[in-house]
Each structure stands twice: as structure tokens, then as C-alpha cells.
Design a protein that fits this description.
The protein is an all-alpha fold and 167 residues long. The protein contains 5 helices and no strands. The chain has one domain. Helix 1 packs antiparallel against helix 5. The longest helix has 57 residues. It is rod-shaped, with a radius of gyration of 32 Å. The termini are far apart. Keywords: Membrane, Transmembrane, Transmembrane helix.
Length: 167
């Protein structure tokens, strides 16, 4: 037997392991790009909804509530201040009821009942401290109801995100 310097090369047809790994890396990177796009898109939608709800609901309502709080904090709370508070309360009630046109699932009856109760408290012979306590109850309930609505109803976009992640 002669030893020859000729070596045989083995030609393998088919897919090698490195090809499979490369294709898996391409597929995983494509999936991560799609996932990143959807998460950025949905987070931007959530941010826009939060900003819109803040501008439409919280800022004007806090302006009314701050004005009423300022009137209650005045040292000589008299009939002029009572009338100012009740007028501001009427404006606040009108605004809260008008929010139903933009956000139809808001319970405007609850807000009307609360503001009517506080309006009655203003004209009663209570001390300013009692009026402030009732005012803080009103403020807490109004803001908590709006926040609850914002989280439950308006941010239903989280359901979409959940759907995209776990189809």
C-alpha cells in the first residue's frame, strides 16, 4: 500500500448546526424587534391617554378644589365666601357632569350627590373646621373616583398589551 498525499474531502450536503443556530438567532432577533415595537407603541398610547385624562379631568377639577379650599381658609369666612364657595361648587358640579360626554362611564350622579351634600353643609351653622372636614371628604371621594375610573376604564390598553404578550 502506498501512502498518497491525496486526501479525500467529505462533502456534506444539508444544514449544519451553525446554520441552525444562525437562523434561530435571526428569528429571535426578529421577534424581539416586533415585541419592542409593540411595547413602545402601546406605552406611547398609554402615555397619551394619561396626559389627556390629566389635562381634561384632574387639572381643572384641582383648580376648582384649590379655589374652594382657599375660600375656606380665609380668616373671615362670611356670607360672601359662602356664596363664592357655592358658586364654585356649582361650576365644579357642572364640569363633573359634563365629563360624561367625554367619558361616558363616569358616574355623574355620585358627584352631584356629593356636591349637593357639601353645598348644604356650607349653609348650615357649622364651624369652619366642620366645613373643611366635609370639603376634604368631598375632595377625596371625587379624586379617588376619577382615579379609579382612569385606571379601570381608560387604561384598558393594558389588556391589549397582555393580549399581545400572551396570545
Amino acid at each position: 500500500m502506498e501512502s498518497s498525499s491525496f486526501q479525500y474531502e467529505k462533502v456534506v450536503s444539508g444544514i449544519s448546526t451553525s446554520d441552525i443556530v444562525a437562523w434561530l438567532a435571526i428569528i429571535i432577533s426578529a421577534i424581539s424587534i416586533v415585541f419592542t415595537y409593540y411595547s413602545l407603541f402601546l406605552s406611547k398610547q398609554i402615555e397619551v391617554k394619561i396626559l389627556m385624562f390629566n389635562k381634561v379631568c384632574f387639572e381643572p377639577i384641582e383648580t376648582y378644589l384649590d379655589y374652594i379650599d382657599g375660600k375656606l381658609n380665609e380668616s373671615n369666612f362670611g356670607s360672601n365666601q359662602q356664596n363664592d364657595v357655592v358658586n364654585s361648587l356649582t361650576d365644579l358640579t357642572t364640569y363633573l357632569v359634563s365629563l360624561v360626554r367625554i367619558y361616558p362611564k363616569i358616574d355623574s350622579q355620585k358627584f352631584e350627590t356629593l356636591t349637593d351634600g357639601f353645598s348644604d353643609c356650607i349653609y348650615e351653622q357649622n364651624t369652619v373646621a366642620d366645613k373643611k372636614i366635609e370639603f376634604f371628604k368631598l375632595k377625596q371621594v371625587v379624586l379617588s373616583e376619577l382615579l379609579k375610573y382612569a385606571i379601570i376604564e381608560e387604561l384598558s390598553i393594558f389588556k391589549k398589551l397582555w393580549f399581545y404578550l400572551f396570545k
